[in-house]
Design brief:
Number of strands: 12
Mean pLDDT: 84
Oligomer: single chain
Strand content: 15-25%
Shape: globular
Low-confidence stretches: 255-272
Structural class: alpha+beta
Order of helices and strands: HEEEEEHHEEEEEEE
């Protein structure tokens, strides 16, 4: 078989495998009952430590959950929450596309800290508690304030919600944030700044608009990006990094807890997740 055909066959298999796994595993545990996205649950997933019980402890968590509808088979929506020592409530930051005609796309406290994302149970991507976390939160807030695309949103290839959280990861290496391969938009970089720190802060990345690039890092391993699809291998915690499903192999996330009911703040009328 000619080398070109071998490469084409290998790429096809790399795409078919995660596609089959993604389609075989519905992205939502509950709520897809035909009532529409406004009726989907956004209560607490029970993943954030009780802020009152841990009032003296500074906490940071980063989440990702399957996006709404058919996109949930291919991509995730991330956000970050934190509380300083002495506080009894979390602050949540994320980027959403709805309402961008009315101002910045960066949202603060737009939903329950660890709430389901329109029926999708989130995964904890990073968690830090205790000593040094108050100073980390200061740097996180500086990163939120310095996000250069606060007035811009493009679901593909970016800048989007994943671009925002990736920016925080690069600006705050202490987070050691390893975003999954299906976080489309995490690799978005402008043409005038194509090379820089990897999202985890443990390596480097070269990328053109998140459509063509490569990342090398202790957390990320070796990852290639082609047209927004990421392929790679993680040797730190052995796994394949694949589009559509994120990773196949040993887990790279903080263990999750069972979902617990809670009320969510309302989403602006006419908006879409």
């Amino acid at each position: 078989m000619p080398p070109f055909k071998r490469i084409a066959l290998a790429l096809s298999l790399i795409l078919v495998l995660p596609l089959g796994i993604s389609l075989a595993n519905p992205p939502r545990a509950e709520g897809m009952d035909g009532r529409g996205w406004r009726a989907l649950p956004r209560h607490s997933a029970g993943l954030a430590p009780d802020p009152a019980a841990f009032a003296d402890t500074a906490i940071v968590q980063v989440y990702a959950a399957a996006t709404y509808g058919w996109r949930g088979y291919f991509a995730v929506h991330p956000w970050i929450i934190f509380k300083r020592s002495g506080e009894t409530a979390y602050t949540r930051y994320e980027v959403t596309g709805w309402g961008r005609s009315r101002g910045p796309v960066v949202r603060r406290n737009n939903a329950v800290a660890d709430g389901l994302w329109f029926g999708a149970v989130p995964t904890v991507l990073a968690e830090h508690r205790g000593a040094g976390v108050d100073e980390m939160i200061d740097r996180i807030e500086d990163a939120v304030a310095s996000y250069p695309y606060a007035d811009t949103y493009r679901s593909y290839p970016g800048p989007n919600s994943n671009t925002f959280i990736a920016h925080i990861g690069r600006e705050v290496p202490a987070l050691q944030l390893d975003m999954p391969a299906n976080a489309i938009g995490k690799d978005w970089r402008p043409l005038d700044h194509p090379v820089g720190r990897a999202v985890s802060g443990t390596g480097w990345q070269a990328s053109l608009y998140g459509l063509l690039g490569v990342t090398v890092g202790i957390e990320e391993g070796l990852e290639f990006n082609l047209l927004g699809l990421s392929f790679g291998i993680d040797l730190n915690r052995p796994a394949l990094r694949l589009p559509l499903i994120g990773r196949l192999g040993f887990g790279n996330a903080v263990p999750t807890a069972e979902a617990a009911p809670n009320s969510a703040e309302p989403v602006p009328a006419g908006s879409q997740p």
